[in-house]
Amino acid sequence: MAPHPATRRATLADLGLTPRAGANPAIIGITADSRAVQPGFLFAALPGSRLHGATFAATAIEQGANAILTDSAGARLLPPGPVSVVVVEDAREAFARAASLWFGAQPARMVAVTGTNGKTSVATFTRQIWEALDHPAINIGTTGVEGAWTAPSAHTTPDAFTLHAMLAAAAEAGVTHGAMEASSHGLDQRRMDGVRLCAAGFTNLTQDHLDYHHTMEAYLEAKAALFTRLLPDDAVAVVNLNGAHGSDIVELCLDRGLPTMTIGHGQGADLRLLSQRYDATGQDLRFSWQGQPYMTRLNLVGGFQAENVALAAGLAIASGDDPQAVFATLPKLTGVRGRMQLAATRTNGAAVYVDYAHTPDAIETALKALRPHVMGRIIIVFGAGGDRDTTKRPLMGAAAAAHADVLFVTDDNPRGEDPATIRAAIMAACPDATEVGDRAEAILRGVDALQPGDALLIAGKGHETGQTIAGQVYPFDDVEQASVAVAALDGVI
Ligand SMILES: CC(=O)N[C@H]1[C@@H](OP(=O)(O)OP(=O)(O)OC[C@H]2O[C@@H](n3ccc(=O)[nH]c3=O)[C@H](O)[C@@H]2O)O[C@H](CO)[C@@H](O)[C@@H]1O[C@H](C)C(=O)N[C@@H](C)C(=O)N[C@H](CCC(=O)O)C(=O)O
Ligand SMILES: Nc1ncnc2c1ncn2[C@@H]1O[C@H](COP(=O)(O)OP(=O)(O)OP(=O)(O)O)[C@@H](O)[C@H]1O
Ligand SMILES: N[C@H](CCC[C@H](N)C(=O)O)C(=O)O
Ligand SMILES: [Mg+2]
């Protein structure tokens, strides 16, 4: 991440903030974390899921904060004192917009993609298309910031301060194009307000994160905000009509009068997927753009990847690139780490794939996508994360039982929960599965079960390199474990 620009100086007015009473002090830093406050800083006291940031206002003032931004609930918690106070209706939004003004620069062409599944894939493909067209480009999301400027990221959508710092640092390093993932938490918490978007994409909406949003309606509303609230009037919405709730998003965009581009299998899609022919390393794709047919090669396993690629192509076109030039880049696209990644092959020819499916729909999609590539049985090793939507667990078990032939239920990231309880919730919907808590052992058992023509899908952790158990992160990599298991059983590396 970019260091805090120490030399910067702004007034509250410069950051779009109006203090409650008169004073408009100059500030030399901004933060939403009281622990980072230094003399002359603006402290944004934001509402949290556990507590209100205003609880820490006294500490922030002691450390030298000379202005506080908060909402009316926060204002009631503030100690009396000489600092300037800005009270707004939505302090998270005001902070994100202030951060965008504070950091200033952004890549000239920014796009965002939202949806339950496929965000990382679409953002990465978009960045790869731009790179192939010689634009200095990045993608920001679950796998960090990748491309012409890199940084790790703790969140799929970084918090507003980190995000705007990243965008400015990337722009200052010459990056002109950025594709970012908009998670529902990020949208709900206004982490990406102030990002100047020229286009946004929608993949699909199926069950996940009900621990946070409680209902599918609220989850849809959080995602839809990218189109109803964040996209400027002249920006383009690019929507997968085949993704669940795609037509709802199109309707919202048309109601707003937003320019809308559609992709999908059906008639009427601007970028229409006509047919796919699968082979061992990927697929040939026939598609049409505004009625004109094209053929291309995709070196990507899984039918659903064509939808992700089409969405990425649509975003590149919406950001100003020539459609023919964009289509010419598609054979160069490479798979995203941990998404339908061929991790190892047994000496009997059976393949082991690692995939990030951690929702019921993703498990179904990934298993169905493997089917045309597999002559024998499909074996799956999977679990579900702790401290996340508990209601998705039996649905994941049912999806695996419906679309795989042999099931091993194991641990994902149990986080703070009892791993056996998580496994039991999955097993309730797939009682014939074999339960193996230890993930390395489950992978070994799955690999051992592979006969000629079979394939193994290790689902849930994709690119992750750690397993979080009771607050500790232990090194764990599904791709590495797949190789270790094959080497142990076949005696080769
Ligand atoms: C539920 C959730 O999203 N929580 C995020 C949220 O924390 P919070 O609202 O609980 O904050 P809090 O701890 O109550 O604190 C409230 C305020 O007090 C401040 N504070 C706190 C302590 C202190 O000493 N001083 C201080 O000033 C905090 O900076 C904060 O502004 O704001 C924090 C700061 O930005 C985030 O780190 C935190 O992410 C947590 C760790 C998390 O696990 N989030 C996940 C669920 C998430 O965001 N996931 C999505 C991906 C989902 C997907 O798959 O699509 C993501 O975008 O990564
Ligand atoms: N278009 C799609 N439709 C359905 N499932 C998909 C689609 N694209 C990817 N998937 C499944 O979802 C998994 C995660 O893909 P990806 O990482 O691109 O999604 P994401 O939306 O970024 O996830 P996260 O919310 O965790 O960041 C893949 O490994 C695959 O199993
Ligand atoms: N962004 C997702 C990632 C889930 C990955 C899976 N391995 C798990 O731990 O559930 C989440 O935080 O819900
Ligand atoms: Mg992602």
From TrEMBL:
Pathway(s): Cell wall biogenesis; peptidoglycan biosynthesis
Positions of short motif Meso-diaminopimelate recognition motif: 412-415
Subcellular location: Cytoplasm
Domain Mur ligase central, first and last residues per copy: 113-315
Catalytic activity entry: UDP-N-acetyl-alpha-D-muramoyl-L-alanyl-D-glutamate + meso-2,6-diaminopimelate + ATP = UDP-N-acetyl-alpha-D-muramoyl-L-alanyl-gamma-D-glutamyl-meso-2,6-diaminopimelate + ADP + phosphate + H(+)
E.C. numbers: 6.3.2.13
Residues that, per the record, bind UDP-N-acetyl-alpha-D-muramoyl-L-alanyl-D-glutamate: 34, 156-157, 183, 189, 191
InterPro entries, A to Z: Mur-like_cat_sf, Mur_ligase_C, Mur_ligase_C_dom_sf, Mur_ligase_cen, Mur_ligase_N, MurE/MurF_N, UDP-N-AcMur-Glu-dNH2Pim_ligase
Domain of life: Bacteria
Residues that, per the record, bind meso-2,6-diaminopimelate: 388, 412-415, 460, 464
Protein name, as recorded: UDP-N-acetylmuramoyl-L-alanyl-D-glutamate--2,6-diaminopimelate ligase
Protein's organism: Pseudotabrizicola alkalilacus
